[in-house]
């Protein structure tokens, strides 16, 4: 992140900016926000974190084009993820982005190890917001792309118990302060 030369290659390849730039800053902006928020000399990382959230931190679509195109090998995507983790730890977890991240974790770890798109949508946006998308759900079911019975879950993936143990060990180590 310290090597960023503000060339804009990350911004020129960003799929989110191409789709809708009105609610999202360029990836290099988030890289610099993370650099400032994570700096040990910064008295309050919230000064950098709150504007990042207000300017689309949770709107990154995870395409990682910014990482592929950076001539300096900087991972703006990684910095965005780090800012998100920092925001969650600081209690800035309001809105659909944090709800989506938490729902994803619940499905993968506390569920059966598989992403359940139906539950993910309900947990991320809520039941009321999803009632406006019933036509999409109907078309998905008709095309065989969605099974409404999947809301109840399915078989656990092979090795799910080990995944749960790893996540629990990481959470314990984080509480003990042995990992950041």
Automatic annotation (TrEMBL):
Biological process, per Gene Ontology: aerobic respiration; respiratory electron transport chain
Keyword annotations of the record: Iron, Iron-sulfur, Metal-binding
Signal peptide from the UniProt entry: none
Domain called 4Fe-4S ferredoxin-type: residue spans: 49-80
InterPro entries assigned: 4Fe4S_Fe-S-bd, 4Fe4S_Fe_S_CS, Helical_ferredxn, SDH/FRD_Iron-Sulfur
A single GO molecular function term of this UniProt record: iron-sulfur cluster binding
Protein name as annotated: 4Fe-4S dicluster domain-containing protein
The species this protein was found in: Campylobacter californiensis
Lineage of source species: Bacteria, Pseudomonadati, Campylobacterota, Epsilonproteobacteria, Campylobacterales
């Amino acid at each position: 992140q310290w090597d960023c030369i503000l060339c804009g290659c990350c911004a020129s390849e960003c799929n989110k900016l191409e789709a809708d730039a009105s609610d999202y800053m360029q990836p290099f902006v988030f890289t610099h926000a993370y650099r400032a928020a994570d700096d040990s000399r910064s008295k309050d990382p919230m000064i950098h974190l709150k504007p990042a959230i207000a300017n689309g931190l949770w709107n990154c679509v995870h395409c990682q084009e910014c990482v592929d195109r950076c001539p300096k090998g900087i991972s703006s995507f990684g910095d965005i993820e780090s800012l998100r983790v920092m925001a969650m730890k600081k209690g800035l977890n309001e809105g659909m982005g944090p709800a989506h991240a938490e729902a994803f974790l619940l499905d993968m770890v506390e569920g059966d190890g598989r992403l359940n798109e139906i539950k993910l949508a309900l947990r991320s946006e809520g039941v009321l917001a999803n009632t406006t998308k019933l036509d999409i759900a109907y078309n998905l079911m008709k095309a065989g792309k969605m099974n409404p019975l999947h809301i109840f879950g399915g078989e656990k993936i092979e090795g799910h118990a080990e995944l749960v143990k790893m996540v629990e060990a990481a959470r314990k180590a984080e509480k003990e302060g042995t990992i950041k």
